[in-house]
Fold these 2 entries.
Entry 1:
Amino acid sequence: MSKEKNNNLIDTITSLAKRRGFVYPGSEIYGGLANSWDYGPLGVELKNNLRDWWWKRFVQSRRDMVGLDAAILMNPKVWEASGHVSSFSDAMVDCKKCKTRHRADHLIENALPDQKVEGKSADELSEIIETHKIACPKCGAKGEFTKARKFNLLFQTSIGSVEGDKSVVYLRGEVAQSMFVNFKNVLDTTRIRLPFGIASVGKVFRNEITPGNFTFRTLEFDLMEFEYFIEKNDWQKWFEYWLAQQQDWLKEIGFNKDNLRVREHEKEELSHYSNRTADIEYKTPIGWKELFGLAYRTDFDLKNHSKHSGVDLEYTDPESGNKFTPHVIEPTFGLTRLMLMVMLEFYYEEGEGNDKRVVLKLHPKLAPYKVAVFPLLKNKPELVKKAQEIFDNLSSEFTTVWDDRGNVGKRYYAQDEIGTPWCVTVDFDSLEDGTVTVRDRDTAKQERIKIDELSSYFSDKLK
Ligand code: GAP
């Protein structure tokens, strides 16, 4: 069966992820917690591989980029200055019958796909819901919604153990602000000069009402983003440059370009900080959805932080001596969302009947395990010993997994399903001639390779 025929791909991926240890429902033994997920042994490898590739490509391989890893809890004044306390909100409605809460724009989009919702006020959204008697997706009741009200997406918590001493702080809703508030620190402590970027990866939190769809929209998620500081007049050039770079990386990962598109935000849709935004969207089984974003944040953030903190966040050009507030282009990459889309993109079902196999055709750099090592028979100590030696050698260089259960055919299929690019089988010939069978995940072809050459064989492939 080809992947196009699998209409329930998100359900299939959710089940594969749970069954094979990529992603588990959060707090499962207590009945779970809506829209929270835990990354299991394979999921954490895949997610880290995406993160590491991103860091290498966009930070370490460039002269104009530096990294930062800042605290999640920040002074609440940060979020006032950034506009998130006043503007980071969604309009919600409650069903009076079944008491469930829904995002007003999502309700309308699902019921009336041609209706534009971007930039509409809570009152305007309510009017559309009432006029079209949109039904509650949970209980089906029509015309039973409350008026839409704005709910802030920032999660609140408090610092201080003594009642009364407590003060409200927010879990960060984006990583970006940590890079703006450290702009001066980075300038003062490095030799970097405009144009340059500060990059960061970490957890962010949003109190969103979400309709499921596995890890697509969650309460907490990993975000990789950078703020690229430029001179105002150059913003269009850098916007186009980073848009191309974001798409290039997706192509390097192996995404089919027909499953990607760029969507420009309309004026009414722009976030409070942005003058231009484009989304890179991916064609999911539930329609085109945002994968990455790119925003021209102007000098909005640095100017506001300068005003609220009283600290000068201007930049002085070392050659001309000109002093100005840099403008910012922000490429943002949802890491957990990218992982979901990678699983959707590279999931294949091939063959029929007994030959049917599920293959995750992940780029080898992303595969949780690069190599699986099998002794042909687990009750033959000489085979196990040789396989163990090979495992020990390879595992110091590549993430390697051991499997000695069932027949070799089943072991191949089990590795295909989790995306392991190569399987090494140690058989009786290996003891005689020092070679092993290496089987390729995508072609299922097998070849004999000298044990001594395995390490360079896989290194070359990974290049
Ligand atoms: N600093 C800009 C910013 O945070 P955003 O479009 O709100 O922009 C960035 O989010 C990226 O984070 C999105 O492109 C998407 O990949 C991912 N994302 C946003 N909300 C998410 C959620 N609730 N769950 C998972 N990923 C999310």
Entry 2:
Amino acid sequence: MAYDDDNVFARILRGEIPCKKVYEDDYALAFHDINPLAPVHVLVIPKGRYVSMVDFHRNASDAEIAGLFRAVGRVAEKLGLNESGYRILANNGRDANQEVPHLHIHIFGGAPLGRMLKKIER
Ligand code: 5GP
């Protein structure tokens, strides 16, 4: 799937759409989700043009991969979640219901989050 430069997160990265920024460095931007599903719900996105994990693991540099995941840890720490705990999640493609075609890591926290996932039967 080709990268769409008009996707909403590309527009946030360009400053065309506002966001409630939590953290930024050379590799990543983190901001509050517009429709939070937990008391804390933040998205961490790479600055590079990557559609999904498939695209990212194939095409991103080691520095970009390390930079994104270090940013996730820094954001959780900045949000004060280290002690209480948190969940990270990245939806990838159709079965995961990925809505925005720019890789993003969700960070959920601020309350007990329950089990990892409702069990799915085929
Ligand atoms: P996905 O289902 O792709 O993993 O999650 C996309 C997430 O992006 C959703 O949780 C949705 O609420 C969030 N989102 C969509 N549009 C915007 C926006 O314009 N600003 C922010 N901050 N979040 C958005």
